[in-house]
Amino acid sequence: MIKYSFVVAVMATVLSACSTSTFLELTNEMEQARKDAPVVLTRAEVKKLVGEIPTAKLPVVTDEAGNTIASQLDDLDRDGNWDEMAFVCDFTANEVKKFKVNFIEADKAPKFTMRTNVRLGIGNKEDGFKGVDQAVSPKGFVGIPLSYQAESVSWETDKMGFRDYFDCRNAKDLFGKLTPEMIMDKIGTHESGSYHELSDWGMDVLHVGPSLGSGGLAMFHNDSLYRLGSTDKFEFQLITRGPVRSIFELKSSGWHVDGKTLNAVETITVWAGKYWFQSDVLVSGLSDETELATGIVTSYLKEKKPFSFTANKEFTAVATHDVQSMNNDYLGMGILLPADSKMRTGDAPLLSKKRVKGSRYNMPVGETHFVTQKIKNNQSARHYFFAAWEVENKDWSKQTNFEGLMKSQSEELSLPIRVTVK
């Protein structure tokens, strides 16, 4: 995989010799300001803008004043050539901005501050961990002895951290962050200390137990939840890691659901400045349309019950908000999904005699509020998982603010930045 990253800089002298005569017009069609709005240009769109793409040079985005915008080039199919150019930009309400794409020599490419990250470290705490781009968790691995840094595949933005246990549990967890810096490379090492205790960077804020945690997956079938765990094979594959977005895959082969053997690929995407991750789940081996379940742990809820609400015309949401963090403060968690895909909500354990049996790493799903969405064989189902912690921002101590976050993001997802080549 080829990855490029860049630093914010003004490069007028370097870029003037190879600037383009056409420009990008980006339009915020919303009547509200947007911060860190994602923009993606395909290679074909860049070619339409500039003509032939120089083989020995790299494209960068500049605004009308000649300032270089933080961006990255992503080789999504890992064939050695970049497929998409991604960047983020701030907009006022209904604002139109103009940008150019220019080409520079690779050795002159600036480097941008990393605002997203993905980490899977292999090794042990005594000798250290080495980050890898691909790995397979041994069949039946229960996390002991400790082989993976923080036991997990971890990912983060400058706002929030997440992880998925890279073993039979395959449940998701949260790291509350108090710094915009990328910290996952250090978590679970001697350098960072215990992540179960509050430190200057933050802490592990969630108790997972037998639940699906913060966005873990299961299949809902005949009134039972079949956890996506203890599969025959569990694989991590990094797709891209960069200053504005990171993407990776979690591949599960041999997912046994009521006599059927399924395979699943979850593709997770994070963007700079966001309190959510995007999950695209593709399942093969299904004979009929069924229900994919996504859950939120409920074991530490004190006063408030899980709730549902309409985010906008296209999206619906389920969420929790309470003094439910491991630090005894407010934590909001929510699942946003297309309204036309939602099937049901529920609470586990379910009143069913067909629960999956197993060890604590493959136990029946419990202490979970879940929502299901339609999923068909080899057709991807998408949802977004949100998390916000009071200690990072006092605004998140109020449920109305957390709901407002999910509603505003649903509006942005429904109306992405319009890109026009002029």
Notes on the structure:
The chain has 422 residues and is mainly β. It has 2 domains: 3-112, Sandwich (Immunoglobulin-like); 116-414, Beta-galactosidase, Chain A, domain 5 (Distorted Sandwich). The chain has 3 helices and 30 strands. The chain has helices at 12-16, 43-50, 399-414, and strands at 3-5, 24-27, 34-42, 57-63, 68-69, 71-74, 84-91, 96-105, 116-119, 121-124, 128-131, 134-137, 152-157, 160-165, 172-177, 202-204, 214-221, 224-227, 233-241, 245-257, 260-271, 276-284, 290-297, 307-310, 315-323, 330-338, 342-348, 368-375, 381-389, 418-421. The strands form 6 sheets. A 9-stranded antiparallel beta sheet has the order 12-19-20-21-22-29-26-25-24, covered by helices on one side. Strands 5-4-8-2-30 form a 5-stranded antiparallel beta sheet. Strand 25 (315-323) and strand 26 (330-338) form a beta hairpin.
- Give Rg in angstroms: 22 Å
Number of strands: 30
CATH class of the largest domain: Mainly Beta
Report how far the terminal alpha carbons are from each other: 32 Å
* Annotated CATH topology of the largest domain: Beta-galactosidase, Chain A, domain 5
CATH architecture of the largest domain: Distorted Sandwich
Strand content: over 45%
Uncertain stretches: 1-20, 351-359
Form type = globular
User: How many distinct folded domains?
Assistant: 2
Structural class: mainly beta
Average the pLDDT over all residues and give the rounded result: 91
The largest beta-sheet arranges its strands as: 12-19-20-21-22-29-26-25-24
Helical element count? 3
Helix content: under 10%
Largest sheet: 9 strands, antiparallel
Pfam families: DUF4861 (PF16153)
Protein name: DUF4861 domain-containing protein
Keywords: Signal
Organism: Paralabilibaculum antarcticum
